[in-house]
Amino acid sequence: MTVPGRRSSTFTRLLRHGFTDPSAAERLLDSVELMHVRDDPVLLDALGATADPDLALLGLVRLLEAQPGPTARRELLDTLIAAKPLRDRLLGVLGASAALADHLARHPRDWEALVTYEPRDLHPGVEEFERGLAEATDPVSLRVAYRRCLLSIAARDVCGTTDLAETAAELADLATATLRAALAIARAAAPEDAALCRLAVIAMGKCGGHELNYVSDVDVIFVGEAVDGADEGKALRSATKLASHMMRICSETTVEGSIWPVDANLRPEGRNGPLVRTLSSHLAYYQRWAKTWEFQALLKARPVAGDIELGEEYVTALEPLVWKAAERENFVADVQKMRRRVVENIPAAEIDRELKLGPGGLRDVEFAVQLLQLVHGRADAALRSGTTLDALQALAAGGYVGRADAVQLDEAYRFLRSMEHRIQLYRLRRTHLVPEDEADQRRIGRSLGLRVDPVAELNREWRRHAAVVRRLHEKLFYRPLLDAVAQLAPGEARLSPEAARERLVALGYGDPAAALRHLEALASGVTRKAAIQRTLLPVLLGWFADSADPDAGLLNFRKVSDALGKTPWYLRLLRDEGAAAENLARVLSAGRLAPDLLMRAPEAVALLGDGDGGGLEPRERAHLEQEILAAVGRAENAQQAVTAARGVRRRELFRTAAADIVGSYGTETQPAEADQGALVDLVGGAVSDLTAAALAGTLRAVVRDGWGDTLPTRFAVIGMGRFGGHELGYGSDADVIFVHEPREGVPEQEASEAANRVVSEMRRLLQIPSADPPLLIDADLRPEGKSGPLVRTLKSYEAYYRRWSLVWESQALLRAEPVAGDEELGRSFIELIDPLRYPAEGLGDDAIREIRRLKARMESERLPRGADPKLHTKLGPGGLSDVEWTVQLLQLQHGWSEPGLRTTRTRQALAAAAAAELISAEDASILDEAWVLATRVRNAVMLVRGRAGDTFPSGGRELAAVGRYLGYGDGHVGDMLDAYRRTARRARAVVEALFYGA
């Protein structure tokens, strides 16, 4: 007796055996049908071993209920308990396929088809399946017999008796037998038509390739000829009737459902062409009109039914044309276009679940293998298999694919096809989508042997194999390009220079001749360097092609390789560290800035690896400052010291740019950073920190050179504008003001002269022409602007601000933050200005009107002539200026009472204003999005062009590169510009309401 509130021991055992609904399972086990075996541990263990124990138990009860009487029911149970092969097969099928459980419930004696366990039953072929279908005389009985045969295939599959390739071959053999049976039924229904013609059925696609799915269209082409003495026109009409009837027999829905659609659309002219043609008509079409994809489809052509001799003649006649397809003009472009069209037609909501057609899916493997077959099969007959896995093995054996790559692709293809089989087997429906329901994923995972955490393991393995396919399929594609330029053994297949150039054009290279020269220089020879680069280049070329400027990527790689190719650590880095090669490819093809920084000191490529090179994570300011001050200490004079400091700055600018590019593009293993604000903060914080560290080092060098250890005056550098706000971009000047305080006993004039000498020397040293980018110091935000002294004492600042300060200066001081020099003096300066930038009780009406007047004047006067205001990221409507002035007005008005607003950082102040309910969360989000996007565009322009700019580039390739950085693919530049205008327009509406009070 079970104590109330406690679970029964059966309930617990069911949970332990993998049941997800133990209560329902208990009820089923208590049914009359199972009363004699409910406690038999053999049954429970067998159910627990299935993909879905709940489904298997339900199917078993339904099958027992369907038995014609108690004797039949007892026979089934006794056999089930006594015979392990039947138990595993039957329960395995019931736990994997609701559709086959339905079939067994309708045909309760078909379980007996699983009882026989002899060698000839383990791997049946076409003859065995023909015997299984022999008694079918009409479409309904054919479906019943087909399902009975399918039942035995599924049983061998789920029990592991056959592997993926064997199961797919059996399914193709069953399809062959079924087409033959259907054609026999059609012939029997129209003997007069059958007597007039010879009709051959050519299997195409997966059926032709001997690698069919559980549920798939069976692609066919029909070839017809007149029998001796018959009129050709009448014979073709008769053949067409027979072919049409055969298709209907297989495709139409009856009381027993359908078998599968027979699809003849791969025939010449597709649906618009005649269903049946003569051999000569087929040949004429393929010689004159066929497209590249039609020859690709013929790789799998195989005679399966009807007049096999005629079918063989068809294959023999067309085979030479298939192997000339790679010589066709635009061959590669056609194949690529076909693949892209397939991907583009996938609904956006399904692409992440698409197992077959999506990126990293089955079609990628099949396209890559077929392309290489067409390229190399002309000279190597061993490659001419219609079966994907056999062809892949042959390509590896012939050296056309690296053996390790082939093994990985084989494993990935087998796993993805096995997933596809299990998905289709459940309902016997044609689908390639991974189900979203967790119960479905659990059943699929368990059916593939993933038992610890089936859902998590399934998704992990699926993503892992898809990533392998994405990484390798293009690598296979680019290999022939290297064969075209590298030194190969005599007689080995290679692309002609013309074909290689055509392929490069198809991949987006604007100067294919130069690209071939670069490839030849990189890949030719027998050196270790050339060997490693031959291995790397196929995948690098794919990454270059994924950028807006493949030519620049390849050229830059050659430059880096020429500079570092003899350095052992460089080759080892690219070969052994997974991320380094891809990171390098992304960086070299994303624009001018990062490659320029790298070329000045190519050893910085070490930063792109996973190991001890430091990685792409920006370094903290304290570490940067420590390194720069140490370098300054070792230098012999100030110029040498600042050169070292600028060198560190250049290296760190490269690190930051590389991290930004990799984060924006994403990699094979890491998707692009979804949080655009995080990338903006990364760049702004990193560039601001390294600028501060460079100033600290320069200050130390100047003081040491001129005064030794101690300057006659205490000296501090105050960051302003974007510098003070930790928002510097790659091309930003360093906005600063300088403050000093004479040391005790030092005359003020001497202190002032020393401070001015320091400023002058710092500016000079940081701008000396060299291999490192200059750091421009802009002090125009100081009191009185360009007319005022460069350096003031604390008392001078206090006097000026007390008597003469204007509202715009209070606004500018909102971004003030000490960045270098005497820390105590910096704090004193901040204490001095806080009452100005956070005035008690906020701003008066006159001050607010003055800020609005200044903003309106700036909009009208400072926008460059000819610039499109709507696309100007700084001064245009909804741009940086709009957002920043709106935020700063809130800070001036409420900073005295809201501590969160007392920050130099725009995004932090905006978030604080929303938290204090000074602005709605929606408006804050709109302004933040616009500010982040405008900042990203400015960063992109600098990365792409190598010089700063506030508007989108006008050049097509540069504009495309900015789009690529922002996440827009080829052909979507218009979408990018529309998105910017839309975002800015929404932000301007918020600014009108909040800033102007409209």
In a nutshell, what does this entry contain?
Helix content is 61%, strand content 5%.
Which key terms come to mind for this protein?
single chain; 998 residues; mainly alpha; five-stranded mixed sheet; 61% helix
Write the layout of secondary structure elements.
Layout: H1 9-16, H2 22-29, H3 41-48, H4 53-66, H5 70-82, H6 84-96, H7 98-106, H8 119-122, H9 126-133, H10 139-158, H11 164-189, H12 191-196, E1 197-203, H13 205-208, E2 218-226, H14 232-251, E3 262-263, E4 276-277, H15 279-288, H16 292-298, E5 302-306, H17 308-322, H18 331-344, H19 362-376, H20 388-397, H21 403-427, H22 438-447, H23 454-485, H24 497-506, H25 512-523, H26 528-545, H27 550-564, H28 568-576, H29 578-588, H30 593-600, H31 621-634, H32 638-665, H33 676-707, E6 713-719, H34 721-724, E7 734-742, H35 748-767, E8 777-778, E9 791-793, H36 794-803, H37 807-812, E10 817-821, H38 823-837, H39 845-861, H40 880-894, H41 906-915, H42 921-945, H43 956-965, H44 973-994
Parallel strand pairs: 2-3, 2-4, 7-8, 7-9
Antiparallel strand pairs: 1-2, 1-5, 6-7, 6-10
Helix pairs in contact: 1-2, 2-4, 4-6, 4-7, 5-6, 6-10, 9-11, 10-11, 11-14, 15-17, 19-20, 19-23, 20-21, 21-23, 22-23, 23-24, 23-26, 24-25, 25-27, 26-27, 26-29, 27-29, 28-29, 29-32, 30-32, 31-32, 31-33, 32-33, 33-35, 33-42, 40-41, 41-42, 42-43, 42-44
Q: Unreliable runs, pLDDT <50, ≥5 residues?
A: 1-6, 487-493
> How far apart lie the N and C ends?
78 Å
Mean pLDDT: 89
The class by helix and strand makeup works out as mainly alpha
Described by strand count, sense and barrel closure, the largest sheet is: 5 strands, mixed
Task: Give the DSSP E fraction (strand runs of 2 or more residues).
Answer: 5-15%
The count of strands amounts to 10
Helical content (DSSP H or I, runs of 4+):
55-70%
Quick one: overall form?
Answer: elongated
**Alpha carbon gyration radius:** 37 Å
Number of helices: 44
